[in-house]
Amino acid sequence: MSIGRTDLNLLKVFEAVYEERNLLLAGKRLHLTQSAVSHALRRLRELVGDELFMRTGKGMVPTGRATAMAPMLRESLRRIEDALGVEPFSPERSTRRFVIAANDHVTVVLVAPLSRELQKVAPGIDLVIRPSTRLDLAEQIDLGRIDLAIGIFSQIPPRLNSRTLMSQGEAILMRKGHPASRRKLTRADLTKYPLVTLSVGGQEEGAVGGFIVERGLARQSEMFDRHALEEALHASGEAPRLRMTVPHSLAIPALLRDTQMLSIVPASLAVALTKSGELVRRQPPYEAGTSSMRAVWHGRDEHDVGHVWLREMIAQTARDAEKALA
Fold it and tell me: Quick one: angle between helices 64-84 and 8-20, nearest 10?
Protein backbone atom coordinates (compact mmCIF):
# COMPACT_ATOMS: atom_id res chain seq x y z
CA MET A 1 0.00 0.00 0.00
CA SER A 2 1.31 3.44 -0.94
CA ILE A 3 0.76 6.24 1.58
CA GLY A 4 0.23 8.53 -1.40
CA ARG A 5 -3.08 6.77 -2.08
CA THR A 6 -4.38 7.32 1.44
CA ASP A 7 -7.16 9.83 2.07
CA LEU A 8 -6.94 10.93 5.71
CA ASN A 9 -10.72 11.24 5.78
CA LEU A 10 -10.85 7.46 5.48
CA LEU A 11 -8.95 7.22 8.75
CA LYS A 12 -11.54 9.46 10.44
CA VAL A 13 -14.26 7.11 9.17
CA PHE A 14 -12.34 4.12 10.51
CA GLU A 15 -12.03 5.78 13.93
CA ALA A 16 -15.74 6.61 14.07
CA VAL A 17 -16.89 3.11 13.04
CA TYR A 18 -14.42 1.51 15.44
CA GLU A 19 -15.73 3.52 18.38
CA GLU A 20 -19.43 3.50 17.49
CA ARG A 21 -19.65 -0.07 16.11
CA ASN A 22 -22.51 1.22 13.97
CA LEU A 23 -22.51 2.78 10.48
CA LEU A 24 -25.49 5.05 11.14
CA LEU A 25 -24.04 6.43 14.37
CA ALA A 26 -20.63 6.86 12.77
CA GLY A 27 -22.27 8.80 9.93
CA LYS A 28 -24.10 11.11 12.33
CA ARG A 29 -20.87 11.77 14.17
CA LEU A 30 -19.07 12.69 10.92
CA HIS A 31 -22.10 14.37 9.29
CA LEU A 32 -22.07 11.75 6.53
CA THR A 33 -24.76 9.48 5.15
CA GLN A 34 -24.64 5.78 5.94
CA SER A 35 -23.89 5.01 2.29
CA ALA A 36 -20.97 7.45 2.35
CA VAL A 37 -19.55 5.69 5.40
CA SER A 38 -19.96 2.30 3.70
CA HIS A 39 -18.21 3.60 0.59
CA ALA A 40 -15.31 4.98 2.63
CA LEU A 41 -14.91 1.66 4.46
CA ARG A 42 -14.85 -0.19 1.15
CA ARG A 43 -12.01 2.06 -0.08
CA LEU A 44 -10.11 1.52 3.14
CA ARG A 45 -10.53 -2.26 2.89
CA GLU A 46 -9.04 -2.15 -0.59
CA LEU A 47 -6.08 -0.15 0.69
CA VAL A 48 -5.19 -2.41 3.62
CA GLY A 49 -6.32 -5.73 2.18
CA ASP A 50 -8.49 -6.66 5.16
CA GLU A 51 -12.22 -6.63 5.86
CA LEU A 52 -11.58 -4.52 9.00
CA PHE A 53 -15.19 -4.87 10.26
CA MET A 54 -17.65 -7.77 10.20
CA ARG A 55 -21.37 -7.03 10.25
CA THR A 56 -23.11 -8.97 13.06
CA GLY A 57 -26.31 -8.77 15.05
CA LYS A 58 -24.40 -6.71 17.64
CA GLY A 59 -23.09 -4.21 15.10
CA MET A 60 -19.80 -3.78 13.27
CA VAL A 61 -17.24 -5.99 14.99
CA PRO A 62 -13.58 -5.15 14.23
CA THR A 63 -11.24 -7.81 12.87
CA GLY A 64 -7.92 -8.54 14.50
CA ARG A 65 -6.20 -6.24 12.01
CA ALA A 66 -8.57 -3.38 12.85
CA THR A 67 -8.06 -3.88 16.58
CA ALA A 68 -4.28 -3.72 16.09
CA MET A 69 -4.54 -0.60 13.91
CA ALA A 70 -6.91 1.41 16.11
CA PRO A 71 -4.62 2.73 18.89
CA MET A 72 -1.86 3.79 16.47
CA LEU A 73 -4.26 5.43 14.01
CA ARG A 74 -6.03 7.39 16.75
CA GLU A 75 -2.74 8.70 18.13
CA SER A 76 -1.53 9.58 14.62
CA LEU A 77 -4.71 11.51 13.84
CA ARG A 78 -4.40 13.55 17.02
CA ARG A 79 -0.75 14.34 16.22
CA ILE A 80 -1.58 15.38 12.67
CA GLU A 81 -4.36 17.69 13.87
CA ASP A 82 -2.05 19.22 16.48
CA ALA A 83 0.80 19.66 13.98
CA LEU A 84 -1.38 21.33 11.36
CA GLY A 85 -3.31 23.38 13.88
CA VAL A 86 -6.57 22.29 12.28
CA GLU A 87 -9.86 22.09 14.09
CA PRO A 88 -8.78 24.05 17.19
CA PHE A 89 -10.84 22.98 20.16
CA SER A 90 -13.65 25.37 20.95
CA PRO A 91 -15.85 24.13 23.84
CA GLU A 92 -18.84 26.29 22.89
CA ARG A 93 -18.83 24.97 19.29
CA SER A 94 -17.52 21.43 19.83
CA THR A 95 -19.73 18.42 19.14
CA ARG A 96 -17.16 15.97 20.45
CA ARG A 97 -18.15 12.89 22.42
CA PHE A 98 -16.11 11.75 25.43
CA VAL A 99 -16.34 8.29 27.00
CA ILE A 100 -15.76 8.22 30.76
CA ALA A 101 -15.54 5.11 32.94
CA ALA A 102 -17.06 5.72 36.36
CA ASN A 103 -19.06 3.87 39.00
CA ASP A 104 -22.35 5.22 40.34
CA HIS A 105 -20.60 6.93 43.26
CA VAL A 106 -18.37 8.95 40.90
CA THR A 107 -21.32 9.61 38.60
CA VAL A 108 -23.29 11.22 41.44
CA VAL A 109 -20.40 13.13 42.99
CA LEU A 110 -18.54 14.33 39.87
CA VAL A 111 -20.26 13.50 36.60
CA ALA A 112 -23.65 15.00 37.50
CA PRO A 113 -22.28 18.48 38.39
CA LEU A 114 -19.87 18.23 35.42
CA SER A 115 -22.81 17.61 33.10
CA ARG A 116 -24.62 20.67 34.42
CA GLU A 117 -21.56 22.82 33.81
CA LEU A 118 -21.07 21.43 30.29
CA GLN A 119 -24.65 22.32 29.48
CA LYS A 120 -23.71 25.96 30.11
CA VAL A 121 -20.24 26.19 28.54
CA ALA A 122 -20.18 23.35 25.98
CA PRO A 123 -23.76 22.40 25.06
CA GLY A 124 -22.73 20.35 22.02
CA ILE A 125 -20.43 17.98 23.89
CA ASP A 126 -21.82 14.54 24.72
CA LEU A 127 -20.73 12.25 27.55
CA VAL A 128 -20.98 8.47 27.51
CA ILE A 129 -20.57 6.88 30.95
CA ARG A 130 -19.41 3.29 31.03
CA PRO A 131 -18.90 1.17 34.16
CA SER A 132 -15.44 1.40 35.70
CA THR A 133 -16.18 -1.96 37.34
CA ARG A 134 -15.74 -3.95 34.12
CA LEU A 135 -12.88 -6.41 34.32
CA ASP A 136 -11.25 -5.23 31.06
CA LEU A 137 -11.07 -1.54 32.02
CA ALA A 138 -7.36 -1.16 31.23
CA GLU A 139 -7.82 -2.92 27.90
CA GLN A 140 -10.64 -0.54 26.96
CA ILE A 141 -8.38 2.44 27.73
CA ASP A 142 -5.57 0.88 25.68
CA LEU A 143 -7.89 0.36 22.70
CA GLY A 144 -9.15 3.95 22.83
CA ARG A 145 -12.73 3.01 23.67
CA ILE A 146 -12.54 4.87 26.98
CA ASP A 147 -11.10 8.38 27.09
CA LEU A 148 -10.87 8.72 30.85
CA ALA A 149 -11.40 6.48 33.89
CA ILE A 150 -12.15 7.93 37.31
CA GLY A 151 -11.69 5.94 40.50
CA ILE A 152 -9.29 4.90 43.23
CA PHE A 153 -6.16 3.26 41.83
CA SER A 154 -3.20 1.91 43.80
CA GLN A 155 -1.09 1.11 40.75
CA ILE A 156 -0.97 2.78 37.34
CA PRO A 157 1.24 1.42 34.51
CA PRO A 158 3.69 3.79 32.74
CA ARG A 159 1.67 3.90 29.52
CA LEU A 160 -1.19 5.55 31.40
CA ASN A 161 -1.17 9.04 32.86
CA SER A 162 -3.08 10.17 35.95
CA ARG A 163 -4.12 13.17 38.01
CA THR A 164 -5.29 13.25 41.61
CA LEU A 165 -8.75 14.79 41.81
CA MET A 166 -9.63 14.66 45.50
CA SER A 167 -8.78 12.94 48.77
CA GLN A 168 -11.37 11.75 51.24
CA GLY A 169 -11.98 9.61 54.28
CA GLU A 170 -15.05 7.61 55.24
CA ALA A 171 -18.39 8.28 56.86
CA ILE A 172 -21.13 6.12 58.34
CA LEU A 173 -24.71 6.46 57.17
CA MET A 174 -27.94 5.52 58.92
CA ARG A 175 -31.59 6.29 58.50
CA LYS A 176 -33.05 9.38 60.11
CA GLY A 177 -34.44 8.35 63.49
CA HIS A 178 -31.97 5.50 63.96
CA PRO A 179 -31.27 4.83 67.70
CA ALA A 180 -27.68 6.03 67.22
CA SER A 181 -28.55 9.09 65.13
CA ARG A 182 -28.67 11.62 68.01
CA ARG A 183 -25.18 10.99 69.37
CA LYS A 184 -21.64 10.15 68.39
CA LEU A 185 -21.10 6.61 67.23
CA THR A 186 -19.14 4.22 69.44
CA ARG A 187 -17.19 1.13 68.52
CA ALA A 188 -19.84 -0.91 70.30
CA ASP A 189 -22.36 0.34 67.73
CA LEU A 190 -20.36 -1.37 65.00
CA THR A 191 -20.95 -4.75 66.58
CA LYS A 192 -24.47 -4.04 67.80
CA TYR A 193 -25.83 -2.89 64.44
CA PRO A 194 -25.24 -4.85 61.21
CA LEU A 195 -23.34 -3.14 58.40
CA VAL A 196 -23.85 -2.53 54.70
CA THR A 197 -20.61 -2.18 52.73
CA LEU A 198 -19.70 -1.44 49.12
CA SER A 199 -17.64 -3.81 46.99
CA VAL A 200 -17.36 -3.88 43.21
CA GLY A 201 -15.49 -7.17 43.10
CA GLY A 202 -14.04 -9.76 45.42
CA GLN A 203 -11.47 -12.53 45.37
CA GLU A 204 -13.59 -14.42 42.86
CA GLU A 205 -12.94 -11.60 40.39
CA GLY A 206 -9.21 -11.47 41.05
CA ALA A 207 -9.18 -8.89 43.85
CA VAL A 208 -6.06 -8.95 46.04
CA GLY A 209 -5.89 -6.77 49.14
CA GLY A 210 -9.01 -4.90 48.09
CA PHE A 211 -7.75 -4.13 44.57
CA ILE A 212 -8.35 -5.71 41.16
CA VAL A 213 -5.29 -5.76 38.88
CA GLU A 214 -5.58 -5.96 35.09
CA ARG A 215 -2.89 -5.02 32.56
CA GLY A 216 -0.94 -3.31 35.32
CA LEU A 217 -3.84 -1.11 36.46
CA ALA A 218 -4.92 -1.79 40.06
CA ARG A 219 -8.31 -0.33 41.01
CA GLN A 220 -10.13 -0.44 44.33
CA SER A 221 -12.71 -3.15 44.79
CA GLU A 222 -13.78 -2.67 48.44
CA MET A 223 -15.01 0.88 49.04
CA PHE A 224 -14.14 0.97 52.76
CA ASP A 225 -11.08 0.46 54.95
CA ARG A 226 -11.67 -3.11 56.11
CA HIS A 227 -8.34 -3.30 57.93
CA ALA A 228 -9.01 -0.16 60.01
CA LEU A 229 -12.48 -1.43 60.93
CA GLU A 230 -11.25 -4.84 62.04
CA GLU A 231 -8.30 -3.38 63.95
CA ALA A 232 -10.61 -0.99 65.83
CA LEU A 233 -12.66 -3.89 67.16
CA HIS A 234 -9.84 -6.37 67.65
CA ALA A 235 -9.03 -5.30 71.23
CA SER A 236 -12.60 -5.98 72.34
CA GLY A 237 -12.58 -9.42 70.78
CA GLU A 238 -15.63 -8.46 68.73
CA ALA A 239 -16.05 -8.57 64.97
CA PRO A 240 -18.26 -6.38 62.79
CA ARG A 241 -21.35 -7.95 61.27
CA LEU A 242 -21.03 -7.34 57.53
CA ARG A 243 -24.61 -8.25 56.85
CA MET A 244 -24.81 -6.96 53.28
CA THR A 245 -22.20 -6.25 50.61
CA VAL A 246 -23.53 -4.50 47.52
CA PRO A 247 -21.94 -3.24 44.27
CA HIS A 248 -24.24 -0.23 43.79
CA SER A 249 -23.93 2.76 46.11
CA LEU A 250 -27.26 4.25 45.07
CA ALA A 251 -29.04 1.23 46.59
CA ILE A 252 -27.91 2.22 50.09
CA PRO A 253 -30.81 4.60 50.96
CA ALA A 254 -33.35 1.90 50.17
CA LEU A 255 -31.39 -0.70 52.12
CA LEU A 256 -31.13 1.47 55.25
CA ARG A 257 -34.77 2.53 55.21
CA ASP A 258 -36.77 1.05 58.10
CA THR A 259 -33.77 -0.92 59.39
CA GLN A 260 -31.16 -0.67 62.15
CA MET A 261 -28.26 -1.16 59.74
CA LEU A 262 -25.33 1.22 59.31
CA SER A 263 -23.34 1.74 56.12
CA ILE A 264 -19.67 2.65 55.70
CA VAL A 265 -19.15 4.73 52.55
CA PRO A 266 -16.67 7.25 51.05
CA ALA A 267 -17.17 10.69 52.59
CA SER A 268 -18.12 12.37 49.29
CA LEU A 269 -20.85 9.79 48.71
CA ALA A 270 -22.16 10.34 52.24
CA VAL A 271 -22.48 14.07 51.55
CA ALA A 272 -24.43 13.37 48.35
CA LEU A 273 -26.77 10.79 49.90
CA THR A 274 -27.69 12.92 52.92
CA LYS A 275 -28.90 15.87 50.84
CA SER A 276 -32.41 14.42 50.64
CA GLY A 277 -32.74 14.40 54.44
CA GLU A 278 -33.60 10.71 54.50
CA LEU A 279 -30.20 9.71 55.91
CA VAL A 280 -27.77 11.16 58.44
CA ARG A 281 -24.01 10.77 58.48
CA ARG A 282 -21.53 10.38 61.31
CA GLN A 283 -17.77 10.14 61.65
CA PRO A 284 -16.45 6.59 62.20
CA PRO A 285 -15.46 5.90 65.83
CA TYR A 286 -11.99 4.84 64.64
CA GLU A 287 -9.18 6.20 62.49
CA ALA A 288 -10.02 5.20 58.91
CA GLY A 289 -7.55 5.77 56.11
CA THR A 290 -7.96 8.32 53.34
CA SER A 291 -8.08 7.50 49.65
CA SER A 292 -7.33 9.55 46.56
CA MET A 293 -9.71 9.64 43.63
CA ARG A 294 -7.81 9.91 40.36
CA ALA A 295 -8.45 10.37 36.68
CA VAL A 296 -6.53 7.99 34.39
CA TRP A 297 -6.02 8.28 30.63
CA HIS A 298 -3.74 6.88 27.95
CA GLY A 299 -0.47 8.68 27.27
CA ARG A 300 -1.42 9.20 23.62
CA ASP A 301 -4.13 11.66 24.76
CA GLU A 302 -1.84 13.72 26.98
CA HIS A 303 -1.62 16.67 24.55
CA ASP A 304 -5.03 16.35 22.88
CA VAL A 305 -6.41 19.88 23.45
CA GLY A 306 -9.99 18.70 23.89
CA HIS A 307 -8.90 16.02 26.32
CA VAL A 308 -6.82 18.55 28.27
CA TRP A 309 -9.84 20.84 28.51
CA LEU A 310 -12.10 18.05 29.77
CA ARG A 311 -9.56 16.98 32.38
CA GLU A 312 -9.40 20.51 33.73
CA MET A 313 -13.20 20.72 33.87
CA ILE A 314 -13.30 17.47 35.86
CA ALA A 315 -10.52 18.67 38.18
CA GLN A 316 -12.45 21.86 38.95
CA THR A 317 -15.60 19.87 39.64
CA ALA A 318 -13.63 17.66 42.02
CA ARG A 319 -12.21 20.67 43.86
CA ASP A 320 -15.73 21.94 44.43
CA ALA A 321 -16.84 18.51 45.69
CA GLU A 322 -13.85 18.30 48.04
CA LYS A 323 -14.78 21.66 49.61
CA ALA A 324 -18.13 20.18 50.63
CA LEU A 325 -16.30 17.62 52.80
CA ALA A 326 -14.96 20.26 55.16
Answer: 130
